[in-house]
Known about the structure:
The structure holds two protein chains of two kinds. In chain A, helix 1 crosses helix 2 (35-50). By secondary structure, chain A is an all-alpha fold. In chain A, 73% of the residues lie in helices and 0% in strands. Chain A contains six helices and no strands. The longest helix of chain A has 26 residues, at 92-117. Chain A folds into two domains: 1-70, no CATH class; 83-118. Chain B folds into two domains: 2-81, no CATH class; 99-254, no CATH class. Helices cover 78% and strands 0% of the residues of chain B. Chain B is built from twelve helices and no strands. Chain B has helices at residues 2-12, 14-36, 43-62, 75-80, 83-93, 99-130, 136-145, 151-159, 163-187, 196-206, 209-219, 224-254. In chain B, helix 3 (43-62) packs antiparallel against helix 11 and helix 10 (196-206) runs antiparallel to helix 11 (209-219). The longest helix of chain B has 32 residues, at 99-130. Chains A and B meet through helix 1, helix 2, helix 3, helix 4 and helix 5 of A and helix 2, helix 3, helix 4, helix 5 and helix 6 of B.
Amino acid sequence: MVVYGVALLAFCTLCGVFLGDILGSLLGVQANVGGVGIAMLLLIVLSSMSSKKLHLGADTKSGINFWSAMYIPIVVAMAARQDVIAALSSGWVAIVAGVAAVAFSFALVPLFARMGSDPPPLETSEDRAE
Amino acid sequence: MISQTLLDVASKNSILVAFLFVGLVVWLSYWLSGKLTRGRLHGSAIAIALGLCLAYAGGAMTGGSHGIADIPWLSGVGILGGAMFRDFAIVATAYGADVEAIKKSGFIGATSVLLGVILSFTVGAVVAVLFGYTDAAQITTIGAGAATYIVGPVTGTALGVGSDIIALSIAAGLIKSILVMIATPIVAPMIGLNNPHSAMVYGGLMGTTSGVAAGLAAVDPKLVPYGAMTATFYTGVGCLLAPSVLYFIIQALVG
């Protein structure tokens, strides 16, 4: 049933957002800490577990894959509801700070990505075997 | 009478209108991508840029703060593009993600979040100082805004700065988020953003979930779960560090 996939996805997302909020208030910050990340891990764990014991049917999978495919349209809708005017009209400090932060972060991506992949960081030799 | 009925139907079925609207924007974008750039600029990158232009137009027409979604008959776009559906769809992309790749890059991904927050904060704080701000709480808030547009106001509220500074910090975060959406597909080849490992590092360094989500979608949708996985921790870490440790450091530095 397609709805099983959608329900599983909703379950994982709700759990993740809930745990992220709990984690946020435990840490004393007014924000969700890693909610989506937790939900993603939960979905990965549940779906790989059930492929051995319960086996996710093709219909169930299509319930998840539909929302995965709706991702780009949703992102387009997200872009269309941003406060672009406020971002552009609030003065040079904001613009310079935002642009500089992005430029520096981009510059660090290749540096940091190389650091993690060439010399194995804290990993056993068998992890790196292939 | 017909136009009034049409408006009524559109308002009552706002999410359906949003599906149609977004579908048309995406179709137009892929058509433009094929015709004008022969597919060199990816359709989704054009669609996101077009979305931002429409957001500007919507804001200019209505004076509201939710872009095109402030036009009553397009209010469904606000729901479809809101945090609920965004998170739902991002989680869905994790289905089929490579668990081994995540395990392998987990440590460096976590480190990149920490470094990303500190880097963006520092850059924002330096810019604030260069523009003549001398108050530690104000500098910290603007620095926090350069992390994400949520870290800024959370920090500013905690430190009790004025609403003008909070607005500034939100704007800095918005600029960052928008720029990440637009620039990612352009710089991706230069920074080696083509595998799960670098996507996790990228998500951790950039941090803005909406920016990362849209940026990676335009590069390769397969990379989305890896970038989103780390980016989702960024705002939390920022809210944790900015009003505390980072504020104390700024306070010590500016006296």
